[in-house]
C-alpha cells in the first residue's frame, strides 16, 4: 500500500518536472460518499422486557454497523409492535446507545424514549480511532412501571474486529424484569 502511494507521488513529481506532460487521473484515496452505506456486522443483541402480566416482550435489537468508508456506529431498532402499543404495567421505555471500541471509548447517543422514533444511532466514528479495531454496540434500557419501580438492563451486539473482518465475541441479550 505504501509502495503504491510512493509510486503515484514519484510519477506526479516527474510529470510536473516535464513541461507539457499529462498525468492520468489516479484513483481516489478514499471512497466517495455515494459508495458509503451502513451494513450490520455480526449478530444483534436482543433487549426483552417483562410486562405487568409477566409476559416477555422484545423491545428491540442493538446492532454494530460499518459504512464501508472506515466508520462504525451502533444502531438500536425498536420492535415496531412494542413501540406502538401499550403494555400492562409499563409506563415508559428509554434507550441509551453506545458504540464502544475495545478500550471502552466511543460514542454515546444520549437517552431516547420509544416514542422518539423507530431507531436510535450513535454518530459515526473511525474504526481505527485511538488504535482500536474492535467495536461493539451497547443498548442500556430503562423501563418505568405503573407501580413506581424502574427496571434497567443492557444488551450487547457482537464485537466486530475490523482488522480481521470477523466477530471476536458474540452478542448478549438483556432482560428487564418487572
Automatic annotation (TrEMBL):
Signal peptide start and end residues: 1-24
Keyword Signal: yes
Keywords noted in UniProt: Signal
Protein name: Secreted protein
Lineage of the organism: Bacteria, Bacillati, Actinomycetota, Actinomycetes, Kitasatosporales
Amino acid at each position: 500500500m505504501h509502495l503504491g502511494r510512493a509510486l503515484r507521488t514519484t510519477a506526479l513529481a516527474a510529470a510536473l518536472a516535464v513541461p507539457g506532460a499529462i498525468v492520468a487521473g489516479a484513483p481516489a484515496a478514499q471512497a466517495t460518499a455515494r459508495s458509503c452505506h451502513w451494513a450490520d456486522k455480526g449478530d444483534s443483541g436482543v433487549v426483552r422486557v417483562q410486562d405487568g402480566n409477566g409476559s416477555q416482550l422484545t423491545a428491540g435489537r442493538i446492532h454494530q454497523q460499518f459504512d464501508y468508508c472506515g466508520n462504525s456506529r451502533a444502531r438500536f431498532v425498536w420492535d415496531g409492535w412494542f413501540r406502538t402499543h401499550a403494555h400492562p404495567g409499563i409506563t415508559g421505555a428509554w434507550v441509551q446507545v453506545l458504540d464502544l471500541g475495545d478500550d471502552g471509548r466511543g460514542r454515546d447517543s444520549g437517552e431516547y424514549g420509544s416514542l422518539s422514533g423507530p431507531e436510535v444511532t450513535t454518530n459515526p466514528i473511525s474504526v481505527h480511532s485511538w488504535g482500536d479495531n474492535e467495536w461493539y454496540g451497547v443498548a442500556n434500557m430503562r423501563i418505568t412501571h405503573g407501580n413506581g419501580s424502574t427496571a434497567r438492563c443492557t444488551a450487547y451486539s457482537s464485537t466486530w474486529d475490523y482488522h480481521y473482518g470477523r466477530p471476536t465475541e458474540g452478542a448478549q441479550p438483556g432482560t428487564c424484569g418487572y
